[in-house]
Amino acid sequence: MVKRIVTGAHYGLRDWLAQRLTAVVMVVFILLFAAMLLISPPHDHASWKAIFANRWMRIASFLFLVSLFWHAWVGMRNILMDYIRAAGIRLTLQVLVILSLLFYTIWSVEILWS
Questions:
Q1: How many Å apart are CA 42 and CA 93, to the nearest integer?
Q2: DSSP SS3 for 64
Q3: Torsion angle, CA of 31/37/38/43, rounded to 10 degrees?
Q4: At 114, is the secondary structure helix, strand, or coil?
Q5: Which terminus of the chain is more exposed, N or C, with fewer CB under 10 A?
């Protein structure tokens, strides 16, 4: 008789796709932002503030940050599932990662729209 031990939820394709999509979103944002900075580099605080005064820039930045946080969550969850065998410790660390990423998301909203 074979005894099966469940070690994870086997997210597989969903994780792979999430990592690729979030990476594409981040790369597109970085390339467009770099191009914008090369075309018209800001020289002072007022110039930087003017860049982020546009609603589309705030939304694009927030989309970048949410993609970054989702990318980080998938990576951290997979690392914790692979290397932390004790379920209680793994769950505690996963909850701490989730709470941290939620805090960073709320903080991003506060920064971008304040």
A1: 40
A2: helix
A3: -160
A4: coil
A5: N
